[in-house]
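Take a look at the protein record below and tell me what you see:
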Amino acid sequence: MDSLSTRSHDWTRAAVQRRLETIVRENRFTIAVVFPVVGAVTLVASAEGLLPDPLSYNPFLILFGTLVMRSPLVVGLLPRIDRRAVGALGVLTAFTYAIEIVGVRTDWPYGAFEYGIRLGPMLFGEIPLALPLFFVPLVLNAYLLTLLVLRGWAENPVVRLGTAIAAIVGIDLVLDPAAVAIGFWAYLPPGGYYGVPASNYGGWLLSGTVAVVLVDLAFDRAALRERVRTCEFVLDDLVSFVLLWGSINVLYGNWLAAGVAGIFCLGLFSTDRYDRELVWTALPIGG
C-alpha cells in the first residue's frame, strides 16, 4: 500500500508539473515580455503622477505582476525542489528578512535608506512581507545564468561562486538606480551612482555572498545543471527583470545601469535560447 501510494503521489506530481510547464510555455511571450513592459510603463506613470490614486503604485498589481513574472523560474525549478532545497531556501528567506530589518534599523550594511511606498503588507511596519519574493529569485537567476554561461568552468567552486556573486552585484547595479528613480526607496544622503551610495554595493556583496552559498548548498548541482540546460523557460524571469528595470533606467537616462542590463542580455543570448525562440513562441505557428 505504501508503494502504491508513493507511485500515485509521484504520478500526480508529474501530471501537475506537466500542466504547469504547458501553461508557461504557451504564455512565454506574455509572461516574459508583455508583463515587464506594461509594468515599466505603469511604474513610470505612477512616479510621474500620471495615474489615479487607486492605480498608482497599487501594491496588489505590483505583487501580482511579480508573481506572474516569477512563474517560469518557480515552475522550472519545481522538479529539483526536495527537502534539502526547502531547508536551504528557508534559511535564505529568514536571512533575507533579518538583514533587511538590520539595514532599516541600523543603516548597515547598505547605508541609510527608507522605503518610499508600501510594497504590499509591511512586516513590523518596516519591511515588505513579500521581500523574499523580490530578492530570492534574483539570487537564483544569477546562479542559474552562471551555471549556463560557465558550462564546464562551473565545476570550479571559486569560479562558480565568484561569478554568481558578481552577477548578484550586477543585478543590483541595474535594480537600485531604477527603483530610486521611481520612488520605491531612497538613500539618505543620495549616493553618486544615480542616487545610490557605494555602501549599498558593499552590503549586496555581503548579502549576495551568503545567499549564493546557500543556493549552492540547496541543490544537487549536476541535476540542476541538467534541468537548466533542458528547461528552455527557466531563465525567463531574468528576461523580465532586464526588460522591466532596464527600460526604466533608459527612460530616466541611467545609461550606465542600462548598459549593465545590456550585459545580462548578452549573457542570456549566449545560452542559445533567446535569439529567436522567445519571440517564436508568440506566433500562432510557434510553440
